[in-house]
Amino acid sequence: MAVQRVASQQQLTPQQWTQVVIIAGIGTCLEWFDFYTYTQLNATLEKVFFPTNNEAVQALSFWGVYAAGFVVRPIGALIFGHIGDTKGRNRCLLISICCMAFATIAIGVLPTFAIAPYAAGVAAPVLLALCRILQGLAMGGEFGSAVIYISELAHKDRRGAFVATLQMSVNVGMVVATLLVMLLQNTLSLDAMLAWGWRIPFLCAFVTALLGAALRSTMPEPKAFLTAARLAKLRSTADGGDAADKAVGSCDPSTLDMDVEVATNKDPLEKGEEEANGGSNGHAGTLDKIAMITERLHGHSDAKVPIVRLLRNNALGVVLQMISGAFYVTVSWLAKDLRTYGYSLIVTQGVLVVSLIPNAIGLLTGGMLLDAGVPTIHLNAVVVVIGTGLGFAVYPSVGISVAYAWGLVSMFHFIIGIAMANVAMPCTRIYEPLSRTTGYSFAYNCGYGVIGGLSPLAVAAIKANLPGYAHTYAPAIWLACLGGISVVGTIGLMLYQPRLAKPHVGKIE
What we know:
This is Alpha-ketoglutarate permease. This protein has 20 helices and no strands. It is mainly alpha-helical. The protein has two domains: 1-224, MFS general substrate transporter like domains (Growth Hormone, Chain: A, Up-down Bundle); 278-509, MFS general substrate transporter like domains (Growth Hormone, Chain: A, Up-down Bundle). The two termini are 28 Å apart.
């Protein structure tokens, strides 16, 4: 393969870093296929692992185990973030896909609760929960690490588009999982699905493990991380030595955020911001004045443990990233909410698959707008406001006709795609390289996991407290709440990191 580890020591050609993006995307696609298979097999797995005459208890047990995979994702973000910030991005991605594959294969060979010949009673759901926890830990480190990896490695003129391409690979994994489950459910009898059919998607992880591990073992390490790690090592060994101090300097940790090719006489952060402004050297604007004020909120710790450095330097940045992306977590529950309107499983699955196409278009559109110089923070706020307004205009009609359902979910997934692209890449530049994976992954998983996990419950609670026809506005009301949270987070990011509100944010190193 053309892309080897040695490539981390030199400038990648366009063909090479395009290949790297594809490899990283394949790994992310495979992991999301493994993770999403569980949700698509809910009707079968409820009977296999949680047999009971009470359907409510059965459903609660299944979704309780499902929730376990979400609850541990922030913990996984800290574990794999530490690996990514200390041992390297590539090692983190390689370990995460192996952990995901192991847990998924294990689910495929688990004994059932009572279905012969492999019955183990209560041990079966316990083992399932443990496998789901391991899946959640791996997922906690996968997506954030992959986004950081691509944002550091890709050419600065196309970072938005390539991070968006990586995000699109999540859609591919979800679509493949959904289509495979639909194929099995429509070709096998119910007895066959309960006996052995449900195992097939999970056992496919054996192939994904071999393919993903083989591809990721060849991926180079980003120069931004290598440079920062070398400077940190020099600084550590130079403590107390005047000569070494002169060689390393006493620069702020934020200035370590650079690639080898920009490590010139000019501070790389200043150079990146000049490029983001089109090379302008005019008078400092309002954002620059705000930057001088908000600089007091940033720490300058050199702690060796990434989470310690993160909390001392960028705790507020973590919170702002969490809430700025609140609106786009609707992608995790919008299609599922259709089942509450009486639509069949095949219809909701079809709506999900089709709606991911406009979502991918929205992602790519948002990424290209970022690369074209559109101020992404401002664009994200506009998109959120438009999406919230459309929610109130369209959502009450969802239950009238399946056509409304198809149109609504597809439209929202397009809007959410633009929002996702304008949050993912810019938020990577909140953090410096040696705590970047930890910070980004932790904030992403807390926001997506906690808010996304609570959303179905929140919508149900709002519906229960609205009279008559008004309950049809419940999802729109929750969308408005998420939109408001996102706008607050967006404004907060503009104040906390003014450089993120400037054009060409992808050029900031």
